[in-house]
């Protein structure tokens, strides 16, 4: 192996944990009472609206507004008619979300091992370039990564084979010499293998850790 590509959200960066903490502190500002059920509904809405952006059916800001139109009625909060009012409410969520940004404890150790292997390190993420780079900076990993490729910068998203190939190209490594690691079996593993990379699944529920996956295997 000459390079490794990591997914970002829920691989290096704890998106679910950060968002859950953010939701719990944000909902009371809107007059609601947070609950596990509301958090679960938020993530369902988030995935649906985010996928619409990835598919080109709405803008990045548009999918944020769509989230609020679906979520605010769940906490009996009036849904503003204007985009500016929706954007202001979403800014409140973002503030709480960003205040809770955190890396997984095993992220830096895994990057250290990758460096010790002599591998170049990339991040491939379905997200906006500005926000995903801001996450890496906030959690202290930006300087450890050689290349960051986003669906926004590439003009395509996982599982399109081109996003894996173009990230390998940016790293200066052939797909056959590149390892992909991520939490999403379909997007980070199966699709990467179809594109010619080696890929390992980060299955945290099964007790797998990032350092396990970047140690060279005999």
UniProtKB/TrEMBL annotation:
BP GO annotations: small molecule metabolic process
Cofactor: Mg(2+)
GO-annotated molecular function: hydrolase activity
Keyword Signal recorded: no
Keyword Ion transport recorded: no
Organism classification: Bacteria, Bacillati, Actinomycetota, Actinomycetes, Propionibacteriales
NCBIfam families tied to this protein: HAD-SF-IA-v1, HAD-SF-IA-v3
Family annotation (Gene3D superfamilies): 1.20.120.1600, HAD superfamily/HAD-like (3.40.50.1000)
Protein name: HAD family hydrolase
Keywords, alphabetical: Hydrolase, Magnesium
């Amino acid at each position: 192996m000459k390079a490794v590509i990591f997914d970002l959200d829920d691989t290096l960066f704890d998106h679910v944990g950060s968002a859950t903490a953010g939701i719990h502190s944000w909902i009371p500002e809107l007059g609601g009472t947070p609950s596990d059920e509301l958090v679960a509904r938020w993530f369902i809405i988030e995935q649906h609206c985010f996928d619409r952006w990835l598919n080109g059916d709405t803008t990045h800001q548009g999918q944020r507004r769509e989230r609020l139109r679906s979520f605010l009625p769940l906490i009996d909060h009036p849904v503003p008619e204007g985009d500016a009012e929706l954007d202001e409410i979403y800014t409140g969520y973002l503030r709480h979300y960003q205040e809770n940004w955190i890396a997984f404890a095993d992220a830096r150790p895994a990057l250290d091992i990758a460096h010790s292997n002599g591998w170049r390190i990339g991040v491939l993420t379905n997200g906006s370039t500005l926000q995903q780079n801001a996450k890496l900076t906030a959690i202290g990993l930006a300087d450890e990564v050689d290349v960051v490729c986003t669906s926004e910068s590439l003009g395509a998203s996982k599982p399109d084979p081109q996003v894996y190939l173009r990230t390998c190209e940016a790293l200066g490594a052939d797909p056959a010499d590149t390892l992909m690691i991520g939490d999403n079996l379909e997007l980070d593993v199966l699709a990467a293998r179809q594109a010619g990379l080696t890929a390992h699944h980060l299955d945290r529920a099964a007790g797998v850790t990032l350092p396990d996956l970047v140690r060279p295997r005999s």
